[in-house]
Specification:
Layout: H1 5-18, E1 21-25, E2 32-37, H2 44-52, H3 58-73, E3 74-80, E4 86-88, H4 101-106, H5 114-121, H6 126-141
Antiparallel strand pairs: 1-2, 2-3, 3-4
Helix pairs in contact: 2-3, 3-6
């Protein structure tokens, strides 16, 4: 017996509800991935918008908004083992690296803020940051629309 339309919709809703994280590759790196969670647009999104209010230049405000969203949503960086498994990058045993000073230290570049860490990690390439953010935003709008590129 085939699945009814209501059963199909209920199954799809359960599957969407279970997709609360996505793992995306970091452009320019062979084995570096970042895992992101859904953020609450009404709470965390508002906090991000409030922080951006003082930035007058629209291009800078858009980039800062994308970066702040990635920083807020990041749950950790992962490397791909030779066997294909993703493992957390945790150089000091205090948890996976996120967009923070520990990441800059581990990857040997200077950064004072989380935004600086993103700029440094992406080599100052605005287009790469924005494309990475676009993948995250597309996934957060519809978790079934983006292939979880970093998953083995």
């Amino acid at each position: 017996m085939s699945e009814s339309i209501l059963d199909q919709i209920a199954r799809e809703r359960r599957e969407l509800a279970d997709k609360t994280e996505v793992t995306l590759p970091i452009p320019g790196y062979t084995n570096l991935f970042c895992r992101y969670r859904l953020i609450d647009a009404l709470v965390e999104g508002k906090q991000i918008r409030d922080r951006l209010a003082s930035i007058r230049n629209e291009e800078e405000r858009v980039a800062a908004g994308a970066i702040d969203t990635l920083v807020e949503a990041c749950t950790g960086f992962y490397g791909r083992e030779p066997g294909g498994e993703l493992v957390p990058i945790d150089p000091d045993g205090s948890g996976p690296l996120v967009y923070e000073e520990r990441l800059a230290e581990a990857f040997q570049f200077e950064a004072e803020t989380a935004r600086d860490v993103v700029w440094g990690l992406f080599g100052g390439r605005r287009a790469a940051i924005m494309e990475h953010f676009r993948l995250y935003a597309e996934w957060s709008a519809d978790p079934s629309s983006v292939v979880t590129l970093g998953e083995a």
